[in-house]
Amino acid sequence: MTELLEEELQGELRVGLSFQRHGTRADGIGVYTAALARALPNSRCKPTPCFYSSPGLVRRTAKTTSVSGSIAFPRSFHAQAAFSSLGWPLRTEGRIDVYHATDFHVVRMDCPVVATLHDAVPLKHPEWTSSRLRWLKNWQIRQAGRIADHVIAHARASIPDLVEFFGIEESKISVVPCGIDRHWLQPVETADAATVVSRFGLIPGYFLFVGTLQPRKNVARILAAYLTLPKSVRESCQLVIVGRAGWSCKSEVEAIRAAQAKGERVVWLESITGEKDLKAIYANAGVFVFPSLYEGFGIPVLEAFASGVPVITSNSSSLPEVSAGAAMEVDALSVDDLVAAMERLAEDQNSRNTCIALGRERALHLSWENTASLTAEVYRSVI
């Protein structure tokens, strides 16, 4: 019997993987979920996209249905969460062995549930999140930790926050780092790179930030540091900000526009959605600047490492764990620290070469295949 059980556990697992119908590459959760969907088959898992119905949509059947290889749940998430709070599980009709919620949307099910909790920002730093429906969202993410049979964090640094703010037992948490697609390690074609920089008016060697404009991303201090740099540095290096306007970023947008009006070489690209363009933008950067105030992981750091760009990042939250000594770490609250690091990596070739080499090594170490393999181990531990 034991041998049969072990054989079954080593066989292909049917994994329900949470997806949003409107999802795009724009956010970290979307990148993570799509990467798992691609890499899990190599770890003897068969991922099946799962969707909750749109709010207000009434189905004639209460059964879970499959559409084009995916599973469409019969109710909206919030409707099902209400049933879940009453102790009524969502029935998957035996179509999956385990469900993986990558987006905080967790309800009771008739199979084991694994939840990836990317960070504790809404609970630890409510000032960095929208107040609209905050109480409902906070209840939702607390429920995610309570209901899940096991929780995945991306970094050891996140564990104390998950224990404190989600009330999760540490024994229920496994650390599984994110990865980087191997194609990021391949050089960008010279012609493609030239086309992209020309289209967006970029001059290679710029300071680069990639991420949504929101308070915790610290864009205001990046801009302040850039404007404090010596004029000679600003004249030779643009500041390129890539990312859409997020919540509570009015002051950042106004500061960017004001700098542009004064003739400063600040470029804001709001609508880069194609990965090919983004990869070319990374490849032409001189320094990647990512002094976020709080990250559950920080995939852009790995993208910069893989692109051969020296990185400046924060010495707090998960970022030192992600960079593992391959980036120049600064106090994210100190504009002076940022200025010193930006000037050094713009002008000191030895420092640049060291960071580039260490970053490349770090990117080689962290792959999505490794992430999928460790995640599959978590799945098998709960069934």
Automatic annotation (TrEMBL):
<dbReference type="Pfam" id="PF00534">
    <property type="entry name" value="Glycos_transf_1"/>
</dbReference>
<dbReference type="InterPro" id="IPR001296">
    <property type="entry name" value="Glyco_trans_1"/>
</dbReference>
<dbReference type="GO" id="GO:0009103">
    <property type="term" value="P:lipopolysaccharide biosynthetic process"/>
</dbReference>
<dbReference type="Pfam" id="PF13439">
    <property type="entry name" value="Glyco_transf_4"/>
</dbReference>
<feature type="domain" description="Glycosyl transferase family 1">
    <location>
        <begin position="206"/>
        <end position="361"/>
    </location>
</feature>
<feature type="domain" description="Glycosyltransferase subfamily 4-like N-terminal">
    <location>
        <begin position="27"/>
        <end position="182"/>
    </location>
</feature>
<protein>
    <submittedName>
        <fullName>D-inositol-3-phosphate glycosyltransferase</fullName>
        <ecNumber>2.4.1.250</ecNumber>
    </submittedName>
</protein>
<dbReference type="InterPro" id="IPR028098">
    <property type="entry name" value="Glyco_trans_4-like_N"/>
</dbReference>
<dbReference type="GO" id="GO:0102710">
    <property type="term" value="F:D-inositol-3-phosphate glycosyltransferase activity"/>
</dbReference>
<keyword id="KW-0328">Glycosyltransferase</keyword>
<keyword id="KW-0808">Transferase</keyword>
